[in-house]
């Protein structure tokens, strides 16, 4: 057997493989015998076809398979002996005739690149800080209250009052209307409805429509022009002006639950009342702040790593990553119920930039982990799982769920590994602390 390795470029290599065809004789005989045991042919019982007929029908295919298998085996054995760091699977090309005494293959492959780690001390990253106070808790409770809003007709007395003396529609009110729209005096598709319900101020309707409804009382009508935007989703009316007439059937004011023990109970707080509810809201907000700050810092660190480190990116790894991204996009479409998502054409080319960045970062992280001993430890993995499990009603069951599946454990290991890289990078780089409000933090990308 003979093997030669040729350098075709920065990462591209060619390995020429040679071996005698006679080395496959025993395997060939055994393979044909196995095929013969199940082969069917007219005039013969199953498994009783003569060897010469088995050879005639399947000999070339068996030769083809065995020669490729042998070439692949020889390739991986030699790559291991030479300490070749493979970036992907080889592409095997036969260079000899299938019945030649000496079989020759060329194996084209890529090797992993050398990763040149830059000087992290020259980098600057921003670490945001946010304090959760009473105002933030109050705003969060307002959101929770709005999720339990219910409406009462304006002017009608009830257990929660009548909504005040002003019975005209106001922002936040729920209105129920009939409307009809016409363009050049003709009604158009989708321009008419009865007992249509929406809440003023939520932006569900076009601004002119809401403005016309605002201030009307139950039983009142109004006509007004409405110009549809040029990019309106309804192509038949986009860019056109319609004349609408609306009639208000009812105006209902919003009643929000009071922040009391009953409200706390409705949120699942069975003991401790309002004080416990506020404590749990703060705990959730603190957790969200930590997650958001970590995510922002991670994204910035990864961008800096990408720009500070130098390496050639293996094309084979990028292609494999593109395939994963295509499959991920397809699964997303299927989960969203998109028709024919399973067969929808998704060009891999649209993921070239994303795939290249992922492969680059993967190789950089791998090099850093190896050089700086940043691999995730069992204790770190356990701590991360315990922290995530603590947010659930039955933490022990969640811990068991993680440890029962190697794939889930791998996800946690990768998460810890990334945290280790971030900690190492920020220990070397200049970190700028920046205090922001919770609202500002929520808007940062």
Short characterization:
It contains twelve helices and eleven strands.
Q: End-to-end distance, in Å?
A: 58 Å
Topology, number of strands: 11
Major β-sheet annotation: 5 strands, antiparallel
Q: Name the CATH class of the largest domain.
A: Mainly Alpha
The residue fraction in helices comes out at 40-55%
Number of helices: 12
Low-confidence stretches: none
Alpha-beta classification: alpha+beta
Question: Can you tell me the overall shape?
Answer: elongated
The number of distinct structural domains comes to 3
- C-alpha Rg (nearest Å): 34 Å
Full CATH superfamily name of the largest domain = Trigger factor, C-terminal domain
Instruction: Name the CATH architecture of the largest domain.
Output: Orthogonal Bundle
Q: Could you tell me the mean pLDDT? A: 91
Strand fraction: 15-25%
Spell out the helices and strands N to C.
EEHHEEEHEEEHEEHHHHHHHEH
CATH topology of the largest domain: Trigger factor, domain 2
